[in-house]
Amino acid sequence: MSDEIDTLSEMEEREAARFAAALKFQRERPLPTSNFCTDCGEILDHHRRQFALCFYCASKREARMNWR
Fold first, then answer.
1. Is there a contact between 42 and 62 (Cβ–Cβ < 8 Å)?
2. Same domain, residue pair 35 and 68
3. How far is CA 42 from CA 35, 48, 51, 58, in A?
4. What domain range includes position 62?
């Protein structure tokens, strides 16, 4: 009985280590950037690319979020 519990706990530890390694790898990757606004398709300035929205669409979206 204790052998089964030990085996099961070892499997869980290995799975947790694999999950932690995958999560660490995912967090180290840079976020994807977009060259075009996702709402209107306008070409984005370099400093707006990480948000994927032009200033106009971002301000519209923020106004909608504040309206609620």
1. no
2. yes
3. 8, 11, 13, 12
4. 31-68
Shared domain check, 43 and 65: yes
Residue labelled with tokens 């840079």: 30
Report pLDDT digits (tens) over 12-62. Answer: 999 999 999 998 988 887 766 789 998 998 999 888 888 889 999 999 988
Given this model, what pLDDT does residue 11 score? Answer: 94
CA distances, 46 to each of 9, 35, 40, 58, 59 (Å): 49, 8, 17, 15, 18
Provide the whole-model pTM: 0.47
